[in-house]
Here is the input.
Amino acid sequence: MNCEAVLNVEDLYTEDRLTPSRKAQVDAHLKSCPLCGGKLAKASPLSGLKSASAPKDLKERMKKLLAKLESAEPAPAPEALSMDSEFWPVVASIAIYLGLALALAWAGPGAPSQKYSPATAEALR
Amino acid sequence: MSAKMTSFWFRTSETVLLVLAFMLPLAFFLRTYDGAAIKTTLFEAGTLVLAFAWLFKGLERGRWELPESARPLALPALALLAWTIVVFASSPYKLAVLPAALKQVLLLLIYLIALLEFGGAGSARRLVGWLSAAAWLAGLYGFFQRLGFDPFLWKGSFGPRVFSTLGDPDRFGFFLALCAPLTLTQWLDPERDWFLRWLDAGLLILLGANAVWTQSANAIVSFLAMCLAGAAILPLVCPSKESLKAAVLASCLALAVGGCAVLAGVDAKRLLEALSALGRSIAEAAQSPVAAGLRLWLAAALAAAAWRARRLFVKQGALSESCYLAGLCAAAVGSLAASALSPDGPPSSASWLAWPLAGMLGGLTALARRGGAVIVIPLPMGETARQRLYAPALLAFAGLAFFPLRWFDSEIEHNTALYHCNRRDWDQALAHFERVSPGTESYVMAQYGKASAYLESDRPSEALAVYAAVEGLSPDFMRVHYEKALAYAKLEDWNNASASHARQAQLDPSFAANYAGWAQSAKRAGDLITAEMAAKAAMALEPGDPAHQTALAEIYMKERRVAEARKLEKQAAQLRREARKKPQG
Ligand SMILES: [Zn+2]
Here is the structure.
């Protein structure tokens, strides 16, 4: 693996999600390449946190914060229909298709389908 | 790496998949011979966009990845892909088998992309949602067709049988069947609104009613298979009180559809005949054991993964995931059963949906073991170098996108050519047949039509040249030997004409006109024994046609069997008199 390939998988490496063989390849590269080793140590925000511990009152502070947020914010209105961000691109694509299809069917090239013309439809039956 | 662009490519591919799920069942275009030809174009173009969106996402991130838990599900699909390509490359009739091979490759691509990208309950929910929207529209159109309101050209093409936007009752039936377990899943979804659940129940009734109205034994058997698969699998994979209710609902629906179908006059015998197709399907699978084995491997891998994921989801209390896992399993098992039960497999333009659904099923099972190891293929280049690859990749995309459009244009040209054929305007017909390009589904058919146009416009030697080309694409295509014999007869090459008739008779022993032509050619070639045999065969197939008797009488005269000839001529005269009387009476 070259430097670029190693940097392209750095997040998977720091999360320890590479397969053993791939991890060994990255390790081998890091041993021979101080440049990547330095970059990886700097880029990974978690690398220096191995010995860090959470503050003792963290739980209490989070509970208070949550209670404050809950009282401040009105309950979100329940979404009746899932009109989420995926909805509009799909609707737009379908509208474009329908527009094109209607335009083609109205002013497009070609003759009406011969399979369904009255004579052939009779034969199909 | 830019996370924004990565998510843009992901959203693009999901949008394309949703558009396909919605549009493929609904799209039709009545200026091609088959009104459903546009579905192929949409499918090809859509899969192309999906594949490139996946490619671009990889370029953006500098790597392509596959969760290790999904590897057992990707391997059989990759093997099947390789096998399809090997079979295509070694086929002597590449142009004729190209459309089918291409379709198989694209289906496997869709499966792999769904497996890698859309493995979540959210994606499954959206896909099923858009599919059921399409099912609503198609079902309502079917309802209006049943009432006799159809504003389009194809009105009444199948008599009283409904076919909706799918253009064919069998195809429509398979689509309805596939939607049944998916609608049940939606009904079971714990995050579904009560109002929408009532709508789902309504959709189930609409689906069942349409299945009965198709009056297609295949459609009804598929529908029953899907409902029973749903009834068996939903409570098994997603154990809850609600899923038991869904199973009861599915069983009631199956009973109602089966009962109504028999009451509506779909012969119960025909339903049983469809069941007997199972044996035929197994025999067919045995003819290409490698492909069948690879498919079986894929199905087994999916089943094993689904079973493992089921346990994990139940343990984690992941209700939505377990519900969609159950629904996708039911759809997959139902599709397998339906395709084994229908005599010529599931109609291809409806079965495409089974592949992305199977891919999503695989993706869901991989999701059960989140955070596992990832097999990764990193690109050995930095961000600027990768960005330089964008332009060539886009160019390749544009180049490939040209083909589906060109093929669609060919379908329009083919239809126009047939239009001119029906008006006996052969020059125009020839010009349009000429514009049908190779690779499209109707290419071989267009060559055959071109040769017939030459033959009809008294240019037999040109017709023969084109028939030779047709044989090069697909030997024994339709009635190519018979048509060739007619062309030879126009050139008065009686020996070749006789030989071509003989070949056609071998392939199609119940084709009377071929024997009649053969008798004439053999007589002119001086082979009276063959001529007599052919004339007798024609007479046996169409005993009421006096022309065959006259032809045999002429052969007897040549053989100097005068008495027999006179007797036949009398019989022929008698038949003619009867025929003249009939229309008056
Ligand atoms: Zn390096």
